[in-house]
Amino acid sequence: MASEKKIMAVMSFLVNEMGYDSSSAAECPLVIDCSLKWRIIPRCSVIKILVSKGLIKELIPLRALSTMVDEAFLEKFVFKYEQQVPGLMKIFKGQNVAHKLRLDLPNPVADAENFVANPI
């Protein structure tokens, strides 16, 4: 069972940073069990960038976000768009400094988008 602090952190990120509806986040308890740092934020950063660039139309369902194995996520959202969005794999892997520090930043998704626009 997740702590109240973790539940609040995951919900805050999904609702405030990603724009998911709080009820849809609450209806997918599997997402609360995922690591915010190692699964949710990297995947959401990739998805948010793809949406912002018009490469996909909408955020993916939270159930898919939380249960899709890395290989499937990489195929569907990273490898497929790596040519159009250089640096997408680095964001997924958390290989830039700002992405590693994202939990301390006010807007981790904007930081990831900035990295794509201005890679180190």
From TrEMBL:
Residues spanning the signal sequence: none
Molecular functions (GO terms): nucleic acid binding
Domain of life of the native organism: Eukaryota
InterPro entries: MTERF, MTERF_sf
One of the protein's GO biological processes: DNA-templated transcription termination
Keywords: Transcription, Transcription regulation, Transcription termination, Transit peptide
Pfam families with a match to the protein in the record: mTERF
Protein family: Belongs to the mTERF family.
Record PANTHER family: CGI-12 PROTEIN-RELATED (PTHR13068), MITOCHONDRIAL TRANSCRIPTION TERMINATION FACTOR FAMILY PROTEIN (PTHR13068:SF133)
Name of this protein: Uncharacterized protein
